[in-house]
Amino acid sequence: MTIRLRKGVSSADTEYGVVLLDEDTGHYWNLNPTAAVALRTLLDGGSPAEAVRQLTERYTVDAASAGRDVQELVDGLRQAGLVEGQEPRP
Fold first, then answer.
1. CB 36 within 8 Å of CB 11
2. How far apart are CA 86 and CA 47, in angstroms?
3. Dist. CA 17–CA 34, nearest whole Å
4. C-alpha of 64 from chain center
5. Thinking of the domain 3-81, which architecture would CATH place it in?
6. Using an 8 Å Cβ cutoff, are 88 and 47 in contact?
7. Quick count: other Cβ atoms within 10 Å of Cβ 75?
8. What is the DSSP string of the chain?
9. Is the sign of the CA dihedral 32, 27, 21, 46 positive or negative?
10. Tell me: the pLDDT tens digits for 17-72?
11. Which of 73, 74, 55 lies closest to 64, judged by CA?
12. Which of 68, 75, 31, 76 is nearest to 51 (CA)?
């Protein structure tokens, strides 16, 4: 399962997480550190399960909550038109 930022979307790491910029619309999204970990894992070819594992290792969160968070992140990025690729599921 692979997702990628669609053409025209750029990312930049910040002290607080990641910022995504839709260069076509000028809209941007600020992702917090946990969302940044999940997104980086998925963009690097990791599975949703791997993103969940990364989150549970780095933060005090259970796997069920992390799985919901990963899915909500992917769903939100898709709804905003920022990512493309296969539909990852935790």
1. no
2. 11
3. 8
4. 17
5. Orthogonal Bundle (1.10)
6. yes
7. 11
8. --EEEPTTEEEEE-SSSEEEEETTT--EEEE-HHHHHHHHHHHTT--HHHHHHHHHHHSS--HHHHHHHHHHHHHHHHHTT-EEES----
9. positive
10. 999 999 999 999 999 999 999 999 999 999 999 999 999 999 999 999 999 999 99
11. 55
12. 68
Alpha-carbon gap, residue 38 to 61, rounded angstroms: 13
Instruction: Tell me the whole-structure pTM to 2 decimals.
Output: 0.88
Distances (CA, A) of 47 to 6, 29, 64, 69, 76: 18, 22, 15, 14, 17
Structure tokens at 28: 């941007």
